[in-house]
Design goal:
- The chain contains three helices and no strands.
- It has helices at about 1-55, 60-70, 100-110.
């Protein structure tokens, strides 16, 4: 009978220690969750402060004042535009019209004797 009492007492001690460990783990996790929630709250407050600062810095009236103060811009006048006849001529096309392979046509136009920076081909075994 004493052995049964001893085994029951041991089982109760083990169960109590197991329950205590579970309680401590849950307490530690709860504290961690609370710390994380506090960090999230701080980050959200920081984001809100940055958004309000951005809105203040990006205000159109403030930007207009800064542009007038620092850029010294003048309004565009109609005399600043040039006529279309004074535009430069369009550069010549390297590809003949109607070519199905424009890149191949440009490669064929290139002079093979022009130095391209590549190494010269070897003439054969020496």
């Amino acid at each position: 009978m004493r052995i049964i009492h001893f085994l029951v007492v041991c089982a109760l001690v083990y169960a109590a220690s197991y329950v205590y460990r579970i309680k401590m783990d849950s307490t530690a996790r709860t504290e961690r969750v609370l710390r994380l929630q506090a960090q999230v709250r701080e980050q959200r407050e920081a984001i809100a402060a940055l958004r309000s600062e951005w809105a203040r810095l990006d205000a159109p009236r403030r930007l207009q004042i800064l542009a007038e103060r620092h850029l010294k811009l003048k309004p565009i006048e109609a005399t600043q535009f040039d006529s279309l006849k004074n535009l430069p001529e369009r550069p010549p096309s390297l590809v003949p019209p109607g070519t199905s392979d424009p890149i191949g046509a440009m490669i064929e136009i290139v002079d093979p004797d022009v130095i391209t920076g590549s190494l010269p081909a070897s003439e054969g075994p020496r």
